[in-house]
Amino acid sequence: MKKNIVFVMLLLIGLMNVVPVFAAEEVLLISANQESLEIKGNVIEIIREDDYSRILVEDPITKDRIYLNVGKETKVINPLISLDFNHNYIEKGDRIFAKYSPIMTRSLPAISNAFEVQVINNVERFEGTIEAVEDGRFLVDNGGYYLISMDTTMFVDSNNNKLEISDLEEGDQIEAYHSMVMAMSYPGQTGVYKIVKK
Predict the structure, then answer these.
(1) Which residues are within 8 A (CB) of 131 and not within 5 positions of it... i.e. 6 or more apart?
(2) What is residue 143's predicted lDDT score, i.e. its pLDDT?
Protein backbone atom coordinates (compact mmCIF):
# COMPACT_ATOMS: atom_id res chain seq x y z
CA MET A 1 0.00 0.00 0.00
CA LYS A 2 2.79 2.41 0.95
CA LYS A 3 4.62 1.59 -2.30
CA ASN A 4 1.50 2.47 -4.33
CA ILE A 5 1.09 5.80 -2.53
CA VAL A 6 4.75 6.68 -3.07
CA PHE A 7 4.48 5.66 -6.76
CA VAL A 8 1.40 7.85 -7.29
CA MET A 9 3.06 10.79 -5.54
CA LEU A 10 6.17 10.46 -7.71
CA LEU A 11 3.99 10.32 -10.84
CA LEU A 12 2.16 13.46 -9.77
CA ILE A 13 5.39 15.33 -9.12
CA GLY A 14 6.70 14.25 -12.52
CA LEU A 15 3.52 15.34 -14.29
CA MET A 16 3.49 18.72 -12.58
CA ASN A 17 7.00 19.34 -13.87
CA VAL A 18 5.97 18.63 -17.48
CA VAL A 19 3.06 21.06 -17.86
CA PRO A 20 1.65 23.22 -15.05
CA VAL A 21 -1.90 21.91 -15.22
CA PHE A 22 -2.89 20.66 -11.81
CA ALA A 23 -2.13 23.75 -9.73
CA ALA A 24 -5.66 24.39 -8.44
CA GLU A 25 -7.32 21.10 -9.38
CA GLU A 26 -7.98 17.97 -7.34
CA VAL A 27 -6.13 15.05 -8.91
CA LEU A 28 -7.55 11.57 -9.47
CA LEU A 29 -5.81 8.32 -10.46
CA ILE A 30 -8.19 6.48 -12.80
CA SER A 31 -6.28 3.20 -13.09
CA ALA A 32 -3.07 2.18 -11.33
CA ASN A 33 -2.93 -0.94 -13.55
CA GLN A 34 -2.55 0.93 -16.85
CA GLU A 35 0.37 3.02 -18.02
CA SER A 36 -1.86 4.98 -20.38
CA LEU A 37 -5.46 5.41 -21.47
CA GLU A 38 -6.64 5.94 -25.07
CA ILE A 39 -9.18 8.01 -26.93
CA LYS A 40 -10.04 8.36 -30.61
CA GLY A 41 -12.04 11.46 -31.40
CA ASN A 42 -12.29 14.97 -32.75
CA VAL A 43 -10.53 18.10 -31.51
CA ILE A 44 -13.33 20.54 -30.71
CA GLU A 45 -11.37 23.24 -28.88
CA ILE A 46 -7.73 24.33 -28.58
CA ILE A 47 -6.16 26.61 -25.98
CA ARG A 48 -2.68 27.65 -27.15
CA GLU A 49 0.16 28.58 -24.81
CA ASP A 50 3.81 29.23 -25.68
CA ASP A 51 5.12 25.79 -24.82
CA TYR A 52 1.98 23.61 -24.93
CA SER A 53 -1.58 23.36 -26.19
CA ARG A 54 -4.61 22.12 -24.29
CA ILE A 55 -6.97 20.31 -26.66
CA LEU A 56 -10.53 19.24 -25.93
CA VAL A 57 -11.17 15.85 -27.54
CA GLU A 58 -14.63 14.31 -27.96
CA ASP A 59 -15.31 10.67 -28.78
CA PRO A 60 -18.00 10.88 -31.52
CA ILE A 61 -19.70 7.67 -30.37
CA THR A 62 -19.75 7.91 -26.57
CA LYS A 63 -19.57 11.74 -26.46
CA ASP A 64 -16.92 11.41 -23.71
CA ARG A 65 -14.71 14.49 -23.51
CA ILE A 66 -11.27 15.13 -22.06
CA TYR A 67 -8.79 18.00 -22.13
CA LEU A 68 -5.32 16.81 -23.10
CA ASN A 69 -2.19 18.84 -22.50
CA VAL A 70 0.14 18.47 -25.47
CA GLY A 71 3.61 19.72 -24.57
CA LYS A 72 7.28 19.27 -25.31
CA GLU A 73 7.27 15.71 -23.96
CA THR A 74 4.28 14.67 -26.09
CA LYS A 75 4.98 12.75 -29.29
CA VAL A 76 2.84 14.37 -32.03
CA ILE A 77 2.83 12.52 -35.37
CA ASN A 78 1.05 12.08 -38.64
CA PRO A 79 1.55 8.31 -38.99
CA LEU A 80 1.29 8.32 -42.78
CA ILE A 81 4.25 10.61 -43.31
CA SER A 82 6.33 9.38 -40.35
CA LEU A 83 7.37 12.82 -39.14
CA ASP A 84 7.29 14.23 -35.62
CA PHE A 85 5.61 17.58 -35.05
CA ASN A 86 5.00 19.87 -32.08
CA HIS A 87 1.74 20.85 -30.39
CA ASN A 88 1.03 23.59 -32.96
CA TYR A 89 0.48 20.94 -35.68
CA ILE A 90 -2.88 19.97 -34.16
CA GLU A 91 -5.86 21.97 -35.43
CA LYS A 92 -9.48 22.31 -34.37
CA GLY A 93 -11.51 19.72 -36.29
CA ASP A 94 -8.65 17.21 -36.54
CA ARG A 95 -9.45 13.57 -35.94
CA ILE A 96 -6.90 12.11 -33.53
CA PHE A 97 -5.90 9.02 -31.61
CA ALA A 98 -4.21 9.80 -28.28
CA LYS A 99 -2.56 7.96 -25.42
CA TYR A 100 -2.68 9.86 -22.15
CA SER A 101 -1.93 9.58 -18.45
CA PRO A 102 -4.36 7.79 -16.13
CA ILE A 103 -3.69 10.63 -13.67
CA MET A 104 -6.13 13.48 -14.29
CA THR A 105 -8.10 16.21 -12.62
CA ARG A 106 -11.49 15.52 -11.10
CA SER A 107 -13.01 18.34 -13.18
CA LEU A 108 -15.56 17.94 -15.99
CA PRO A 109 -14.15 17.47 -18.52
CA ALA A 110 -11.09 15.98 -16.85
CA ILE A 111 -7.60 17.26 -17.73
CA SER A 112 -4.67 14.93 -18.34
CA ASN A 113 -1.27 14.96 -20.05
CA ALA A 114 -0.96 13.35 -23.47
CA PHE A 115 1.95 10.99 -24.10
CA GLU A 116 1.25 10.59 -27.83
CA VAL A 117 -1.12 12.20 -30.33
CA GLN A 118 -1.60 10.77 -33.82
CA VAL A 119 -3.38 13.02 -36.32
CA ILE A 120 -5.46 10.54 -38.36
CA ASN A 121 -7.59 12.71 -40.63
CA ASN A 122 -9.17 10.72 -43.49
CA VAL A 123 -7.83 7.36 -42.30
CA GLU A 124 -9.02 4.66 -39.92
CA ARG A 125 -6.70 3.15 -37.30
CA PHE A 126 -6.65 -0.53 -36.34
CA GLU A 127 -4.57 -2.17 -33.62
CA GLY A 128 -4.59 -5.91 -33.12
CA THR A 129 -3.49 -9.27 -34.50
CA ILE A 130 -3.10 -10.59 -38.04
CA GLU A 131 -5.33 -13.67 -38.10
CA ALA A 132 -4.49 -14.86 -41.62
CA VAL A 133 -2.32 -13.82 -44.58
CA GLU A 134 -3.65 -14.53 -48.07
CA ASP A 135 -2.08 -13.13 -51.27
CA GLY A 136 -1.38 -9.62 -49.99
CA ARG A 137 -4.48 -9.56 -47.77
CA PHE A 138 -4.43 -9.56 -43.99
CA LEU A 139 -7.47 -10.81 -42.09
CA VAL A 140 -8.00 -8.82 -38.87
CA ASP A 141 -10.62 -7.85 -36.28
CA ASN A 142 -11.85 -11.34 -35.42
CA GLY A 143 -12.38 -12.14 -39.09
CA GLY A 144 -14.27 -8.90 -39.58
CA TYR A 145 -12.33 -7.55 -42.56
CA TYR A 146 -9.28 -7.76 -44.80
CA LEU A 147 -6.56 -5.15 -45.06
CA ILE A 148 -5.64 -5.13 -48.77
CA SER A 149 -2.05 -4.14 -49.57
CA MET A 150 -1.47 -1.74 -52.47
CA ASP A 151 1.61 -0.70 -54.42
CA THR A 152 1.97 2.31 -52.10
CA THR A 153 1.43 0.45 -48.80
CA MET A 154 4.24 1.07 -46.30
CA PHE A 155 5.43 -1.78 -44.06
CA VAL A 156 7.62 -0.80 -41.07
CA ASP A 157 8.62 -2.06 -37.64
CA SER A 158 8.03 -0.14 -34.41
CA ASN A 159 11.29 1.79 -34.99
CA ASN A 160 10.08 2.84 -38.46
CA ASN A 161 12.56 0.55 -40.25
CA LYS A 162 11.29 -0.58 -43.63
CA LEU A 163 9.92 -4.13 -43.91
CA GLU A 164 8.71 -6.24 -46.80
CA ILE A 165 5.21 -7.65 -47.07
CA SER A 166 6.74 -11.10 -46.57
CA ASP A 167 7.90 -10.03 -43.08
CA LEU A 168 4.30 -10.04 -41.86
CA GLU A 169 2.72 -13.31 -40.79
CA GLU A 170 -0.20 -14.76 -38.91
CA GLY A 171 -0.11 -13.90 -35.20
CA ASP A 172 1.84 -10.64 -35.62
CA GLN A 173 0.69 -7.68 -33.53
CA ILE A 174 0.18 -4.66 -35.77
CA GLU A 175 -0.97 -1.07 -35.91
CA ALA A 176 -2.55 -0.30 -39.30
CA TYR A 177 -3.85 2.82 -41.04
CA HIS A 178 -6.39 2.11 -43.73
CA SER A 179 -9.05 3.69 -45.91
CA MET A 180 -12.30 4.79 -44.32
CA VAL A 181 -14.08 3.15 -47.27
CA MET A 182 -14.98 -0.50 -46.70
CA ALA A 183 -16.24 -2.93 -49.37
CA MET A 184 -19.60 -4.42 -48.39
CA SER A 185 -18.37 -7.99 -48.91
CA TYR A 186 -18.06 -10.50 -46.09
CA PRO A 187 -15.52 -10.24 -44.68
CA GLY A 188 -15.20 -6.54 -45.56
CA GLN A 189 -12.16 -5.30 -47.47
CA THR A 190 -10.30 -2.00 -47.31
CA GLY A 191 -7.06 -0.64 -48.73
CA VAL A 192 -4.26 -0.28 -46.19
CA TYR A 193 -1.81 2.66 -46.35
CA LYS A 194 0.60 1.61 -43.62
CA ILE A 195 1.19 -1.37 -41.33
CA VAL A 196 3.47 -1.14 -38.31
CA LYS A 197 4.68 -4.52 -36.97
CA LYS A 198 5.09 -4.33 -33.20
Answers:
(1) 139, 140, 142, 143, 170
(2) 82
